[in-house]
Specification:
With about 150 residues, the protein is of the alpha+beta class. It folds into two domains: about 1-40; about 40-149, no CATH class. It has four helices and nine strands, in the order ββββαβαβαβαββ. The protein has helices at about 40-55, 65-75, 100-105, 125-130; strands at about 1-5, 10-15, 20-25, 35-40, 60-65, 80-85, 110-115, 135-140, 145-149. The strands form two sheets. The protein has a five-stranded mixed beta sheet with strand order 6-5-7-9-8, sandwiched between helices. Strands 1-2-3-4 form a four-stranded antiparallel beta sheet. Strand 5, helix 2 and strand 6 (about 80-85) form a beta-alpha-beta unit. The protein is globular, with a radius of gyration of 17 Å.
């Protein structure tokens, strides 16, 4: 069970069935055992928000990641974070808007963002970054991030 931080006095957790996910809220007075169904897309957006906020708090606005991760992060951050796509061989991939790629390629403080699932989970690359003492490894929600020191 994953407990989510919410407004003081409320507690929430995610429960999953084979077809859907729920966030369950509990408040001792106003909302006893209220159940609210949310889509897995909403959970993903919450995870992306956590990543975006953590990156911005650290001053990281340029990242490399996979195709699906890049587009979502650029859109959800309202272009506060710019991403260039890498393929499964850690080579330049299809970045849909070339100025994004150029911006990231010219940047000096670029983080690498991987996921804990199949969206952009490159085990060998993650192990190589983890062994490199020039990068700090951070974990946010469903993401593994390597930030240059």
């Amino acid at each position: 069970m994953q407990v989510l931080p919410l407004i003081i006095g409320k507690v929430a957790w995610i429960e999953s069935t084979h077809t859907s996910q729920y966030i369950k809220f509990w408040h001792p007075v106003q909302f006893p055992n209220r159940l609210l169904a949310i889509s897995s897309g909403s959970v993903r957006m919450q995870q992306q928000d956590e990543l975006i906020n953590a990156l911005l708090k650290r001053g990281v606005t340029r990242i490399y990641s996979g195709y699906w991760v890049c587009d979502a992060i650029i859109f959800q951050s309202r272009e506060k974070i710019i991403c260039a796509v890498l393929n499964e061989n850690m080579q330049p991939g299809l970045t849909r808007y070339l100025p994004y790629k150029n911006t990231v390629d010219r940047s000096k403080n670029v983080a690498y963002v991987f996921t804990k699932n199949s969206d952009f989970y490159l085990q060998n690359a993650i192990q190589n970054f983890a062994a490199n003492d020039r990068y700090e490894q951070l974990r946010f929600a469903n993401y593994i991030v390597f930030v240059p020191l």
